[in-house]
Amino acid sequence: MSEKQRCKWAESDPLLREYHDKEWGRPLRDGRAMWEMLMLEGFQAGLSWLTILRKREAFRKAFRDFDPEKVAGFKEKDIERLLKDEGIIRSRAKIEATIAGARIFLAMEKDGEGLAKTMWAHVGGKPVVSTTGHVLAKTPLSETISADLKKRGFKFVGPVIVYAWMQAVGMVDDHALNCFRRNSPSRR
Predict the structure, then answer these.
(1) Which of these, 10, 11, 26, 157, is most buried using a 10 Å CB contact count?
(2) Residue 29's Cα: distance from chain center in Å?
(3) Catalytic site residue from 19, 24, 163, 165
């Protein structure tokens, strides 16, 4: 039996393979889960995604399972606690951006917009399927979504981070042309 063909970026580590095979690129429509991924992508800025995956459970513990209600209530003492937490990326700017992001997420929900509904509207509710098999760093669409998120007050949401997030949550299908996950039924 031959080994599954998968995207090259996922071949170097078992954790990356598991993430690729079970999560990356599956359309995610739960707003809270999409917000968690957006915050983790922000923490990834300047680092490898593998670093974030290795720390993901510590992030979940530190940020109360990314419960926006809880995170929105974090105060300076919580920031100080997080800055001492060796299990996560200890960047004050990224921690403060996550707390602010929780407040923005809740405001969107209260206004009836919802993160998932608003972001999926940018792609007409369906994943954009790459026809080239080349993974890009950013696209005009990620620039538009980045501008939308920045206008709402989100931080660490430049077009490159946003494109990586769009791939992660399945708004974009960038699986390699020979990848077993490309165009799988769970992708639609």
Answers:
(1) 157
(2) 12
(3) 19
